[in-house]
Amino acid sequence: AQAWERVSRWVAARQQQALLRVTGVEERRDAPYSTVDTSTEEARIGLGLTPGQVERRTTIARELALRLPLTAAALEAGQISTGHVHILVDLLEGRSVEVAAQVEARVLVRAPHQALPAFRRCVRRALIRFDPLGEALSHLQTASERGVVRYDDPDSGLCTLVATMPVIDGLIVWNTLDANARRDLAHDKERRTEPGRLPSLGAYRVDTLVRWAQEDLAHVGAPRPQRRPVEVHVVIDLPPLLGLADNPAEIPGHGPLPAPIARLLTEDAEWRRLVTDPVTGHLLDYGHTTYAPPQRLRDYVLARDRLCVGPHCERPAHHGQLDHLDAFPRKDGHPDPGGGAPPGDPPSSSLPRNGGRTAAANLRPECTWHHLIKTHHGWEVQARSDGSLLWTSPAGRAYVIPARPVLPD
User: Residue 256 in 3-state DSSP?
Assistant: First the structure.
């Protein structure tokens, strides 16, 4: 097992070297969009990674090549693990080359004999020794960073929200959330007339969060992505809806849902009829014709595709833009710069004959990133007769994106 571990470390080092042959040691900037590095998109699709994963791998590979040569050699020799590398790269982010070299030389001596928690403490001590001012500034900077991340667990039907914020803000949110949950729990205990166990205090905190979100969406001025209210879609076919079968339902972008759970959600749901092909499951009709006003056409395309149609992309369609696969020329003669079908576009019957029609067959939802590389960076997209898409990269590599059935088999 130890020998195989050394081999895996050597493989990781060689893979990082190969990755740099695709992305380049230096980040590439393609005019006129100087902040875009499209070389990583080729690596992301070819390796089947998410944007965050390929960005992470590329960052580590470039750090080892440019600033941490001793670390790269230790990894290739099997002396340290990728976990040691990740800790070193993360903690040295934003530090000067001189500080990075001093810390690297000091901590690698003991790294082969240290578990990851001990190695992290060693790196932090070295940083305080060689860059005390930078460490102080880092603490101040991280205290001002905030964000919320969602992690889905399709197997259990649960998701986890992780909020990162300054400690004062965190205490305000937590204390308010906890006080609401304890109040509701006490209220339910007073009203209880039958013996039984109430949900946990943690469950009441979750219920409070959901209630906050629902109350906010009921306000005037609530956000309306793609000009529709914020919604959560559950797709179920007719037999399980009527209790005649237990075929799984589907939460687009999340995964399957047991039919009994889906039926429980029908009590206060708003219904929309989707007509699908009985063989492929692909959407045929949304309850109205496709050459209808722009909002209905937009609803149809979003219901059909549900996610960005870029290679291996899981971003929700309603967060992106509707793109003409064949560009729609503007009235002033300039091509469509991207952004799909704006509200003021004419109905499809009046579109110019020499341009891409604003029709279901020519519209696909794309996240901002995939819309950008298709429009400005040489990626080509072709719709095929079976509903799939063929993406071709500037390097000439082709990637087939199959059509997504509304209810997967």
Answer: strand
- Both tokens assigned to 169: 């803000």
Q: Average pLDDT for residues 317-332, to the nearest whole number? A: 73
Please compute Rg for the chain using Cα positions.
26
Q: Which two tokens stand for residue 118?
A: 């001990």
Q: Kindly report, residue by residue over 66-111, the tens digit of the pLDDT.
A: 999 999 999 999 999 999 999 999 999 989 999 999 999 999 999 9
pLDDT category at 288 given cuts 50, 70, 90 is: very low
Instruction: Reduce the DSSP state of residue 77 to 3 states and report it.
Output: coil
If you average pLDDT over residues 40-59, what whole number do you get?
A: 88
Query: CA 353, CA 328: separation in Å to the nearest integer?
Result: 10
User: Residue 214: how many CA atoms within 13 Å on its side-chain side?
Assistant: 7
The CA distances from residue 53 to 45, 134, 182, in Å, are 11, 27, 40
CB 308 within 8 A of CB 315: yes
Percentage of residues in the chain having pLDDT higher than 70 = 81
Whose CA is closest to 286, among 323, 233, 324?
233
Q: Which residue has the tokens 């045929």?
A: 284
Rounded Cα distance, 59 and 182, in Å? 45
Q: Are strands 283-285 and 158-164 parallel, antiparallel or unpaired?
A: unpaired
Alpha-carbon distance 177 to 171, whole Å?
Answer: 10
Evaluate if residue 406 carries a pLDDT over 90: no
What global pTM score does this model have? 0.51
Q: Indicate the average pLDDT of the chain.
A: 80
- CA dihedral (45, 46, 47, 50) in degrees, to 10, reads -10
Tokens of 136: 């102080």
Burial call 329-347: b when 16+ CB within 10 Å, e when fewer = eeeeeeebebebbeeebee
Strand blocks (E) in 203-335? 249-251, 255-257, 275-276, 283-285, 321-324
- Is residue 235 within 8 Å of 252, Cβ to Cβ? yes
Parallel, antiparallel, or unpaired for β 283-285 and 398-401? unpaired
If DSSP states are collapsed to H, E and C, what string results for 122-188?
HHHHHHHHHCHHHHHHHHHHHHHCCEEEEEEECCCCEEEEEEECCHHHHHHHHHHHHHHHHHHHHHH
Q: Which of 63-77, 104-118, 132-146, 203-217 has the lowest mean pLDDT?
A: 132-146
Average pLDDT over residues 351-369: 69
